[in-house]
Amino acid sequence: MPAETPLYDTAALRAVERAAAAELGDDFELMRRAGEAAWREWLDRWTQAYSLLVVCGPGNNGGDGYVMATHALRNGRRVRVLRLREHAPRGELAQRAAAEYAAAGGATIEFDGALPAADAIVDALFGIGLSRPPDATAGALIAAINAHGAPVFALDAPSGVDADRGAAPGAAVVADCTLEFIARKHGLRTGAALDCAGELLLADLGLDLPAHGVYPVAEWLRAPDLRRWLRPRRRDSHKGRNGRVLCIGGDHGHGGALMLCAQAALRSGAGLVDAATRAEHIAPLLARLPEAMPRAVESSEDVRAALAAADVIAIGPGLGTQEWGAHLFVAALTSGKPLLLDADALNLLAAQPRALPADCILTPHPGEAARLLGSDTARVQADSYAAVRALSERYRCAVVLKGAGTLVHAPGQGVRAIGAGNPGMAVGGMGDALSGAIAALRAQGLDAFDAASCGALLHSVAGDRAAREGGERGLLPSDLMPWLRRCANPRADER
Questions:
Q1: pLDDT at 415 over 80
Q2: Angle at alpha carbon of residue 298, lines to 295 and 300, rounded to 5°
Q3: What are φ and ψ of residue 111, in 5° steps?
Q4: Taking each helix axis from N to C terminus, what angle separates 323-333 and 344-351, rounded to the nearest 10 degrees?
Q5: How many CB atoms lie within 10 A of CB 23?
Q6: How is the beta sheet containing 415-418 ordered, strand by strand?
Q7: What is the band of 480 on the pLDDT scale with cuts at 50, 70, 90?
Q8: 173 vs 193: CA distance, rounded Å
Q9: Residues linked to residue 109 through DSSP beta bridges, in sequence order
Q10: Contacts of 231 (CB under 8 A, 6+ apart)
Q11: What is the sign of the dihedral through the CA atoms of 25, 28, 31 and 37?
Q12: pTM score, two decimals?
């Protein structure tokens, strides 16, 4: 079984730093370890780089940069530290690190609006120490770093990125690689942080977090974690044992959404899939997906038998918010069956909030999440962790907040961050396929939180495999279908 990958907030990390410093009896020891770890990681990746520009801020992140610069000097590299005029080292630790760098013969220059030539740049400006937008002067320095052209190596967090929320409220460094210290930060795995952090590496500095009494706030799921839930089936399996999913939606002109949902449910392992939709979509659906069992529905009465037979209901893809969709929405809510609400089912819920069954799953994108919360999209994206928790608490059910760095949460559970997916998946119909995948896993026996987590991960990993095969631009939801099947049968050696 894959081990859990815990994620921490900055408050926990600062608590660990304080406890470890007291235990080690030397406040400078952690800075020494961080700077040395940064140097070793940089040396492994940019062995041929001779000239190094280390951009240092006034705090402990800057101190880490001074220590790294000292190691580079002593190893024969051409090193310059660059800082803002007003960013002289503050605090005993940063001052000590800067003094050791100067004693080793290191040169420090001030930012004058341009950066000197260098083979690589180290961002040790703010790290996790800044959660507000950088001021104009710091913003100009960050812009110069991003425009320089040399690879950028960020220490702990790209400067300007909020390591708790994943947002970049102002200018932010766009790094090629970020070396996190002590533990993985939950905010670097969602939102704008994904465009800024680059490849994420970890140097734990020899610290055992549980021993210091701090606990993770989230869990990072990646492709090998699929094996936690997707195990080989019993030899005597039959279709009834693998669950019956009812997909409801596809108002006039939107039959494709329901078709994608039904196909994803089958490719994710559902034993039987019914599709309740408008009569005009029956023939195309059968031509495309003969394994599905479509039925023409013109009123809620027409869907009653299918509701009774279903193990799980996925409603919303192409549903619309007119009378037809609204009546089917109410019928699904009162069916007493496990539900997944997506797309227009979420819009109907936002328009008329109501209590939901505890085992319900909601799968909103940020716009739908904003409507469900009575908020706005920008606020949701500024703190997606807060948004997914608020949704889960308000509706008392599992929530998948879709987007870059999808998050999953349920009452009484921690947040799970999906460490897969790519920009090619930003196309209409991807959410419909996700709904089918999650509903299929729920029908196969996973509880709501695990089905939401596994389904979101399966869908994202399938998207990555499909993109690897043909590229991100032009990726279609239907391209994921064969990969859903392959990824739903993970091998022990798969990464």
A1: yes
A2: 90
A3: -70, 125
A4: 80
A5: 12
A6: 6-7, 218-221, 415-418, 407-409, 398-401, 361-362, 339-341, 312-315, 244-248, 272-277, 293-296
A7: very high
A8: 10
A9: 82
A10: none
A11: negative
A12: 0.95
Which residue matches tokens 């032009």? 474
Asked whether the beta carbons of 239 and 272 are under 8 A apart, the reply is yes
What pLDDT does 131 receive? 83
Say if CB 434 and CB 264 are below 8 A apart: yes
Please give the share of the chain, as a percent, with pLDDT higher than 70: 99
- Give the residues across from 377 on adjacent strands: none
For 296, the 3-state DSSP assignment is strand
Task: Report the C-alpha gap between 64 and 67 in whole angstroms.
Answer: 5
**483/487 Cα distance (integer angstroms):** 6
Q: Across-strand partners of 340?
A: 314, 361
The two structure tokens encoding residue 69: 């610069």
Radius of gyration of the chain (CA): 26
Instruction: Please report the pLDDT score of residue 494 as a whole number.
Output: 58
Contact by Cβ (8 Å): 116, 53: yes
Tell me how many degrees the CA angle 321-327-330 measures, rounded to the nearest 5.
100
Q: Who contacts 489 (Cβ-Cβ below 8 Å, separation ≥6)?
A: 230
Question: Residue 201's beta-bridge partner residues?
Answer: 179
Residue 450 gets the label, from left (phi > 0), alpha (psi -120 to 50) or beta, of alpha
Q: How many CB atoms lie within 10 A of CB 105?
A: 10
Please say whether the beta carbons of 247 and 276 come within 8 A: yes
Strands 152-155 and 120-124: parallel
HSE at residue 47, side-chain half, CA atoms within 13 A, is 1
C-alpha to C-alpha distance for 360 and 273, rounded to whole angstroms: 19
Helix, strand, coil tally for the chain in percent (to 5): 45, 15, 40
Say which residue the tokens 């007493």 belong to: 336
Mean pLDDT of 168-197: 97
Sheet holding 120-124, edge to edge: 107-110, 78-83, 51-56, 120-124, 152-155, 177-181, 199-203
- Cβ(81)–Cβ(124) under 8 Å? no
**Residue matched to tokens 């670097």:** 188
Per-residue CA distances from 143 to 156, 160, 167, 195 (Å): 19, 11, 17, 15
Least reliable range by pLDDT among 118-127, 323-332, 352-361: 352-361
Kindly tell me if the per-residue pLDDT of 61 is higher than 90: yes
DSSP, collapsed to helix, strand or coil, labels residue 268 as: coil
For the chain, the residue count is 495
What is the number of alpha carbons within 13 Å of residue 433 lying toward its C-beta?
Answer: 26
pLDDT bin (cut points 50, 70, 90) of residue 108 is very high
Residue at 494: amino acid letter: E
- The whole-angstrom separation of Cα 386 and Cα 388 is 6
- Enter the DSSP assignment of 279: G
Alpha helix segments (H runs only) across 314-398: 323-333, 344-351, 366-373, 377-382, 384-395
